Amino acid sequence: MIRRLAIIGVGLIGGSFALALRRAGQVAHIVGAGRSRANMERALSLGAIDAVAGSAAEAVDGADAVLVAVPVGAMPAVFREIAPHLAADCLVTDAGSTKQDVVAAARSGLGEKVAQFVPGHPIAGAEHSGVAAARADLFRGRNVVLTPLPENAPADVARLAALWRACGAEVAEMSAEAHDRIFAAVSHLPHLAAFALVDDLAGRAEAESYFRYAGSGFRDFTRIAGSHPEMWRDIALANREALLTELDAYVDELSLLRDLVARGDGEALEALFKRASAARQNWTKHRKP
Q: What pLDDT does 126 receive?
């Protein structure tokens, strides 16, 4: 049981974490802090938090667990602010979609208290943001990746894993480097591709007609282009090296497709489509709902 949980950034992820732990009976009191007073009032009305703190420092005062769920670009300032106010036995984690930059920010901002910080990433985003989109079952059956530090006590890592499992999540561990390389390919690149397509069409003179006749394929491919712009700006910049590698590979693949279409090489196009279709079907077959 967590006596006092502090959520810094009570949006989709932070709010859902709070609701899930409350439903699981794992937390007694939840304090939230955030930039938008309206969002915090909404969090109170939804029962995601019990009280609103005036600052991140106030929120973590007396807390025995803290989730930092702000855009990764805002984390350095948060870590610096909360460091002097963390109790010696307080467990701190994050929900950032990149890990190497967050670890560096934690080392700099938390100083000697960095051993209390266990980095994490719940793989459960959505195109809607804010606490109004939060729900207690968001993490059920979803993956949560922890990237423990050498300084972390095994008991703290186990404690955090237990909290995520109480939310219904499946927990895995990997290095921060492996995390950023993998998610550049399977998460960050797809978001950039969706943003790029929508931006391209929206900038055309006939944009209204394009969007009027767009169907389910366009809807499904571009769903994630409705995601939080600030968050994805920070992710793209934070993981730029791994993301640039994936962007280059994707541009090469698109160039290959363009050449095949230009040459009218139907046989090669079909072979590529078959490979991709088989790979995706194999993924969906083994992927849990």
A: 66
